[in-house]
Amino acid sequence: MALQCRQVGSGRTIYFRTVILNGGNVMDIQLSLGMASNPRTWPIFDGRVKADGINLVPSPVHASELFWRQLKFGDFDVSEMSFSSLIMAQAAGDNRWVGLPIFTTRRFFHTGMLIRKDAGIKDPSDLKGKRVGVPEYQQTAALWTRGILQHEFGVEPKDMEFFMERVPEQSHGGSTGFKPPEGVTVNQIPLEKNIGTMMLSGELDATLLYIVDPNLIDRSTADLWNHPDISSIFPDNRAEGIRYYEKTGIYPINHGMVIKREIAEEHPWVILNLMKAFNKANDIINRERMEHVDYYVETGLITPDAIRTPLVQHGIRANKLVLETAAQYSFEQGLTPKLAKLEEVFAKNTMDQ
Q1: pLDDT for the residue 12
Q2: How far apart are CA 134 and CA 1, in angstroms?
Q3: Which pLDDT tens digit goes with each residue over 29-70?
Q4: Residue 274: CB partners within 8 Å, gap ≥ 6?
Q5: Alpha-carbon dihedral angle through residues 152, 156, 162, 168, given to the nearest 10 degrees
Q6: In whole angstroms, what is the distance from residue 72 CA to residue 243 CA?
Q7: Residue 92: count of CB within 10 angstroms of its CB
Q8: CA 120 to CA 127: how far, in whole Å?
Q9: H-type helices in 51-179, by residue range?
Q10: End-to-end Cα, the chain, rounded Å
């Protein structure tokens, strides 16, 4: 076995792991991979799944930090990526990335809104006129929450005053040229403060999202979830998620994957090989999930019909409605100047996946 390298476009060096097989050479392209660690990525991290022809070198990186590093420095060949930031970057002429329809995380983000109990907020419609925190205005979780507030509860972004925790030097927006949309007030939280401290001091009435993690760009540390002055905006988060899903059929996606365009153009075959690998990883996790769920099925606590179709699937076809809704919200909220088309965001050979 030997390690070889050669130069490709833009002076980039591609490394190959060469294995002698039956007298011939089999060359695996070596690609760095940045993504969060979760059940759907574990089989890639632990080596149970290998992408054909690719030697992946994975790094577990929290999404907040990862997207900043990718958008500013382009640290990884392949990575998880904020869907909102990706379409904003592309709309601004940054074409370094080709989207891959691999979606490892999804959640009802609007059910995670936190409020001060003394802020006079009884339901989401009371957010009008309130001071609202957000780690990063353009992040996909905030995009979904604002979209749902507008379409489900009649609260538009311009109805709230926002306070953003991340500074331009260390944020996704700092790399995409983010400016507050017309009619929307976005204040910068000074470095000596953060969303947590401002929620506890009463300087904020609510926060769309709250992140506590020791990464390079998020700085809140207070445990708001268990503080007596703070509560969820919904009395029953699970019931609200069920209501929204039954009404819309949407289970929001916030992250996809990207590959550097120069690699995709030099080695177009890697795209579907990566798709196959992540689909295989997802299949492994779904099988393991079923092994645990079988106990509940056998005792009647969960019906077989309720778990027949995995909710987390990769590809365009299974997620078209969700992706198009996120693109619509981005356009409505003034983050992108026109409605992003999926065929312009994702690799052409993935559109039928």
Answers
A1: 56
A2: 50
A3: 999 999 999 999 999 999 999 999 999 999 999 999 999 999
A4: 51, 54, 78, 100, 102, 257, 259
A5: 100
A6: 39
A7: 14
A8: 9
A9: 63-73, 83-91, 140-153, 172-176
A10: 35
pLDDT tens digits along 117-128 = 999 999 999 999
CA distances from 48 to 17, 29, 69, 284 (A): 19, 18, 27, 9
| Distance between CA atoms of residues 153 and 249, nearest Å | 17
Distance CA 252, CA 111 (A): 12
For residues 78 and 258, the answer to whether their CB atoms sit within 8 Å is: yes
With a cut of 70, say whether residue 230 has pLDDT above it: yes
The DSSP symbol for 228 reads T
Distances (CA, A) of 45 to 77, 115, 158, 228, 241: 16, 37, 42, 39, 31
pLDDT average, residue stretch 314-334 = 97
Q: For the range 286-292, what are the long-range contacts, defined as Cβ-Cβ under 8 Å and sequence gap of 24 or more? A: 286/310, 288/39, 289/39
SS3 content of the chain, % helix, strand, coil (to 5): 40, 20, 40
Distance CA(82)–CA(176), nearest Å, equals: 12
CA of residue 281 relative to chain centroid, distance: 18
74, pLDDT greater than 80: yes
Backbone angles phi, psi at 198, to 5 degrees: -75, -30
Q: What is the rounded distance in angstroms from the CA atom of residue 52 to the CA atom of residue 326?
A: 32
